[in-house]
Amino acid sequence: MDADFSIELGREDPVLDFPWKDPAGRLAYVDLERHPELMGQIAEAEKFPELGNFLRKLNSTRSIVETAKCDAWETAEINEEDEIYDASCKFASYVDVVFSDADVSRYLFGQPVSRISLSAHEQFARKLVELLRGAPEISSAAEVCVRRCYFSDEKEVREGFYCTLYMSGYGDDGASALQNWEAGLKLMGNAILQLSTE
Length: 198
Hints:
By secondary structure, the protein is an alpha/beta fold. It has one domain (2-196). Helices cover 27% and strands 33% of the residues. The chain is built from four helices and eight strands. The strands form two sheets. Strands 1, 2, 3, 4, 7 and 8 form a six-stranded mixed β-sheet that branches. A two-stranded antiparallel ribbon has the order 5-6. The longest helix is centred in the C-terminal third of the chain and has 23 residues, at 174-196. It is globular and about 50 Å long. The relative contact order is 0.22.
């Protein structure tokens, strides 16, 4: 599988407020790690059961991350970098993840899992990409972006980091693109669980 990662901390790069709420107040963060029964509130997971399975895996007690935000879509817009797949259709998604706050006692490759550690996030992204590159060759591509996050609680706002996990599946039609996207999501979910035990 094609996979890559980037560190995006520039002034124009995306940031995440955690927990988040849209300005209109219609959409907001759903805590699936502590309340998995709220999965029905995630419209994208209801529409795409494959995404729901991925979210369940990432919010399980076995995982060092929890999800913050997601979306999924089908498109016929093929970028220049997508042309290597010789596909006419693409199915894509993103899932924003943060290190689970409950994991303050866990370690990732010898260093504490911390929401405020850039090196921990870079190490996570690098190792995840390594695992995905070793996966079977399928018409899917993954990208892991480390970005700035502002964690809020009742007392303070702390600056830290999060990762956006992009997955794209390619095919000659919507069904094959969806199938390759689902296969890529499964591989990524399994890789994250593998990293969670190291």
